[in-house]
From TrEMBL:
Enzyme Commission numbers on file: 3.2.1.-
Active site, UniProt feature: 221 (proton donor), 365, 493 (proton donor), 534
Species, as recorded: Gossypium mustelinum
Protein name, as recorded: alpha-1,2-Mannosidase
Cofactor: Ca(2+)
Manganese as UniProt keyword: no
Keywords: Calcium, Disulfide bond, Glycosidase, Hydrolase, Metal-binding
Amino acid sequence: MSKSLPYSMKDVHYDNAKFRHRSLFKVITQTLLTSNMRRECVSCSTGKFLGLLMIFGLACLMLTHTNKAHSVSDGLAKGIATNEEHKEVTDIGIRFKKLFRRAPRLPPRLSPDEKIIHHNFTGKLNEPNVEEQWKARQQNVKDAFTHAWSGYKKFAMGYDELMPVSRLGVDGLGGLGATVVDALDTAMIMGLDDVVSEASSWIESHLLDRIRQKGQVNLFETTIRVLGGLLSAYHLSGGDQGMTLAQKGPKPTIYLDIAKNLADRLLSAFTSSPTTIPFSDVVLRDSSAHSAPDGLSSTSEVSTLQLEFNYLSAISGDPKYSTEGMKVLAHLKTLPKTEGLVPIYISPHSGEFSGENIRLGSRGDSYYEYLIKVWLQLRDTQDGNFTYLHDMYEEAMRGVKHMLVQKSTPSELVFVGELPVGPKGYLSPKMDHLVCFLPGTLALGATKGLTKEKAMKDNLLTFEDLDNLKLAEDLTKTCFEMYSVTSTGLAPEIAYFHTKDYFESGLDGGNKSSEYVNDIIIKHADRHNLLRPETVESLFVLYRITQDPKYREWGWQIFESFEKYTKVESGGYSSLDDVTTVPPPKRDKMETFFLGETLKYLYLLFGDSSVMPLDKFVFNTEAHPLPIKSP
Ligand code: DMJ
């Protein structure tokens, strides 16, 4: 394994290099050291040398006599300069230095109506015009959701997903109308009554029949999207004295009854397994279950069911769902791990992990997410001691920092690599977009959903929490740069990072003006974008916790790219085949999570922070909010 980088507060204090200028000393030494300059100096004739000397003299003279008015670029530079640079400039040396200073790189050019917020990342948010701007942007997200829904409704109502280019529906998730259920609570939160009414009446009239008739579904996907969506709709429509966000639609008990019927069938994955680890697939119509063809379940899949099953037990009064779900976590606690890190496969037949592949991307990701979220959900209940979940989470995050976190070359982006052949093998500098859930989870785990300001004031943050929060901020930046490094401003499914041990040329994202164009490598097979939510999810959580407006700005840039390149005129948004090409070829699929997660997180990011507060709601991995205080 290549040496991993121990992550601590010490080695992450670097400034935003985008706004850094080079010192005179660096300019001269770096220039002299470049081979071109050296070659030229060697071949320089005496005449050329005298000529250069004259130009030098003239420049000095001009500098000593120029008036003291600031130039435009001085003015721009001022906003980011050090105090020293604000002193009156009288010294020739300093003027000479100014002549050589590289112009600072400025944020992208903005339309006049955007300027007010773009040029001031540290500005106070309570200026009324700033909040107005964000409201307008939030409305744009709402419009995008309406456009996505209208395409789905026109061409694919009742199918799992829309193929927006072909204008057809497709059942990629077993045929439970997954988009309808995944989208419903987003429509409730956005106050889109018409969509709520269309979606909920489809659910009321068709979903139970589908559940009774359909065949094979994946336990995890059905739980997080369909069960999660129903439970959230139950709460948001007033179930158990929950919120009454939805003015339209059926009584909340309708959602609860359907949820119970579905979960009763899903339980067969647990009850037919010889161990506490559930099978991956369920046949809905006869409530049978079986393992995947290779006999294995994904670690993330078996450990990402508990928020939903616990909440269902709480509102139904029947403990069986929670009991089965929590047995999995209790069992995972007993298994051997590497510094809290776990392989991505587990066998329901033996109950043991299978293979040694460790990663926080696909098949590993939400194991780590649910450790902390389930603890947050249960920590105040009287039902038992769940500290073990917090301990497992903290150990795992220490393992991530010690074993997986590295910095790229040359611009030092912090990323999370993989151990494809286990802890004794090499570290692959590969990071799935899926890993971008991690910064949000780290920030949530640090402050438990409170703002950093409040948590600090109340003395609630340990050194480790602060360290995790810093890593969260660094990783959020990396995830954002995975977008801005491409020609389309949209991230690829997978990125590799240039390190001292790994580089491949000719595989950049296409945005040559990105500072990170040499740090991020995008292989041909990884250039697609599925409209995934993880980065905007982390932007939302980081914004809520740090209150730093840059996270909103980044979210807006990403949203604009989605609008520009993924929108399909006739309705819907499409995943893309290649984010490094303009225009990017469309893949013809609108994933359910674009409505369930991506647009919901963007909407919440631009909106009032009192909506769905993170210390009162826990979002399941598909962005369905569940109240933390269970009845
Ligand atoms: C979603 O279904 C969930 O967020 C899951 O945890 C990971 N994959 C997709 C979104 O990318």
